[in-house]
Design goal:
Number of helices: 3
Distance between the termini: 158 Å
Shape: rod-shaped
Largest sheet: 3 strands, mixed
Radius of gyration: 47 Å
Strand content: 5-15%
Strand order of the largest sheet: 1-2-3
Number of strands: 3
């Protein structure tokens, strides 16, 4: 008598291959079911990362452009301030030179300070006429906006 085997291992190899394919298909199906419905795919995550990087790069570019504009403005302001200081120094020098050329005024005793084109005179003069002459000479200098007269008349 012939014995019939009911063991799985005794089936032909094609049946075993089909079973293996079914097990693989089931495991892939289960893996696909494991993905959460609202969770992005790897491609979507990559796209999101690229988009965020582009936004960050644009923000950095805007900040750099703003900083460059601020630096340019600061440089123009500094140059303008330096020009004002040079103008004030020039005005002071011209007023002192005018006093030195005048026989009745003392360029040494009269203090001349200039800020933003406003000349402040202080110190002693001999007569009220010398006081008026000092103010008139200062006002005649180009760039002088105003003269603050704090000169005092001291008799000789």
């Amino acid at each position: 008598m012939q014995k019939i085997s009911t063991s799985v291992f005794s089936r032909p190899s094609t049946t075993r291959g089909a079973g293996l394919l079914m097990a693989l298909a089931l495991s892939m199906g289960l893996a696909a079911c494991d993905q959460k419905p609202n969770e992005p795919t790897a491609g979507q995550k990559l796209d999101t990362a690229v988009a965020k990087t582009e936004v960050a790069a644009d923000e950095a570019k805007q900040k750099m452009e703003s900083a460059a504009q601020d630096a340019a403005t600061a440089a123009r302001s500094a140059a303008s301030s330096a020009a004002v200081v040079l103008d004030d120094t020039g005005i002071t020098t011209k007023v002192k030179t005018a006093y030195a050329a005048d026989p009745d005024l003392s360029a040494v005793l009269i203090s001349v300070e200039t800020k933003d084109g406003v000349v402040t005179l202080s110190g002693p003069v001999k007569t009220p006429a010398d006081k008026d002459r000092a103010v008139a000479l200062a006002k005649a200098i180009e760039g002088v906006k105003d003269v603050s007269n704090q000169l005092s008349v001291v008799g000789s």
